Amino acid sequence: MHLFLDSNIWLSFYHYSSDELEELRKLGVLIERKQVTLHVPDQVRFEFRRNREVKFADAISKFKKEGLDKGFPQIFHAYEEDYRVLRDAIDAYEQAKGRILQKLERDYRRWKLKADGIISDLFAKAENVAVSEVALAAARMRVIRGNPPGKDNSHGDAINWECLLEVVPSKEDLYMIAEDKDFREKGSDTAFSPFLAYEWKHAKESEVRYYRRLSTFFKERYPHIQLATELEKELLIDELSKSGTFKTTRRVLNSLSKYSDFTSSQINEIAEVATRNEQVYWIGKDADIKLLMGKLIGGALDCLDAETKGKYDEYFSTSLKAG
């Protein structure tokens, strides 16, 4: 899957946004598990670094203006105990607000915000797309002609689009996450630009799957997964089911063994996969596999349904003692 996040998506994590940082952590899992190729053109990196300051400053400015009203009608004063609780709560709010602002501004200058660390890690894992002379010239021509994306003689979106046309393989869909209306159909909040959709279809013989928010992407693609750790577990179980070598089986089981908080459904799924894929059960008597399967399943046999438990006993009966 080829994925592109517009600059405004990255920058939204420094401002008021409905998306949580957990969405970025989930994206990191997808990249690590090679489920997604994230394309980050140089233009996006430059725009991110340039506008991080603007977004942060605006968010802080708005937060500083927000506050609790310290004025109360005179009639409140008669209820002395409750009135004092209200006043103390306001004082506590103001003190906490001051502390968090101080910490935010300190960490911002050091590039130590949580968003900084996660985004830096994702940029390192992504496919960097250098802006070629060909892409730059094509973007300039696009702007001159008045073709989307872009407005007011701005070249940024046009450069990103030309880079994507260069690097995404033909016949593979592009998943685009962009809040910028320059990528949308005029008058619509959700539809992708018909002009760009037509261009992509004829140039790449594939489609553009458009989302305005990262959270919307995850809700459609992984609707039942809220946390990055859950996503990684699900992807590992899926990889185990498709394992075609003993080497892959060992690697995946080792990765799964790092977790201890599996749901009963996941326990059943691991056991079912282990009894269905010969690349797992053929080495079920090996000492390391005994230990790993015992760690994953041995203490949760009651979670298995009758059919799965019967098959598991048949293949891994000696493994059960290793829990």
TrEMBL record:
It holds the Pfam family PIN_12. Residues 3-183 form the DUF4935 domain. This is DUF4935 domain-containing protein. InterPro entries: DUF4935. It comes from Paludisphaera borealis. It comes from the Bacteria.
